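In the previous lecture we treated proteins in isolation. Real proteins rarely work alone, and many bind small molecules. This record shows how such a complex is specified: first the sequence, then the SMILES for pyridoxal-5'-phosphate.
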Amino acid sequence: MHVAYLDLRVNDTKHRQALLECFSKILQHGLILEGPEQLEFEQKLAEEIGVNYAVGCGSGSSALYLALKACGIKYGDEVITTPYTWIITANAISATGATPVFVDVKDDYNIDPDEIKKHITTNTKAIVPVHIAGHLCEMAKINQIADKHNLLVIEDAAQAFCSSLNGTRAGAFSTAAAFSMNPMKILHAYGESGAIVSNSKEILHNVKQLRHAGTIPDPDKISINLCFDISLNHKMDTIQAAFLLENLKRINSVWKKREEIAKLYDRELSELVTIPEIANGEIHGRYMYLFSCRKRNELRLFLEKKGIETKIFYSPLVCDADVYTTNKKKIPVANARRLLQQTISIPLHENMSIQQANYVVSQIKKFYGK
Ligand SMILES: Cc1ncc(COP(=O)(O)O)c(C=O)c1O
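The predicted 3D structure, ligand included, written as tokens:
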């Protein structure tokens, strides 16, 4: 049996038809950029997350960069983040001119609030927690530290669209947050896409200006070069907004299918491997299924031979990427380094059958002689 790590095909014929209709509608009205679907998507997204504002943009990377810029992060600032993330988290910080400061993670792959405290300096301006795989960071503790030291918190919620704690959604825990909606994400477009969410009108204004080359439209419609900030084009395509609106309608059923598979893995594998725990009242966003285990590399090869695709995240750690190693001394993030050696991600997506999930389980059990 073959089990793909991800499967981006749209197999449901009704859904495929609905997406094709979106395309057809946009070709008819012709508002290819900044069309009505973008505004509708932004309103629905803000409602869904439970914040005042949402702004669509060209990618999750743009979203994080714009959120940081809109919050005033700039050259000379230090921003505390995790080394256990995709490189773009740190690159977005660096692109503002600020310096990312990497602190260790806990056993659940998320940034360790106690480590954050140890790395605050007079230059620290913000904390960027990343909800890895869709599991929420300890936001209450992080916000408490931020309040005490007068720091901003900007969530990298790229992987956490469906995640919540006691009803508060990822993205609603901080001053501003960034989502990725690229085709791999649980709520996704069919191309690059992302969004910023916030309760602040000022951030809304800044982000809208920054996503459009630092300009705002001239109310007299005379000048098209009213530029107030140096920025590039980070706009969202109308077609992606229309696709996102369509996918938003079915997000609950997509999440439920992933949750069912994840729960099956939890039940069947918890005695063989170490699965990160989630908090009471937390709903896991189910972007990825990660666990740490013995003989990780051998397990990976074994599963590959059995037709099961797996992935290793995130190698090298961001702090070890060439661009972030300023001297030969390795940053002491021992837990992140240990997890990187022991962790594997197995298939978790809505196009998988329960039969395939059971096959994955049976092969992992076989590998460990159970
Ligand atoms: C943690 C994290 N941050 C940011 C991004 C950037 O999102 P995008 O690929 O939409 O630019 C991703 C994408 O996977 C991500 O995983």
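Summary for your notes: Residues 121 and 336 are 22 Å apart (CA to CA). The chain has a mean pLDDT of 96.
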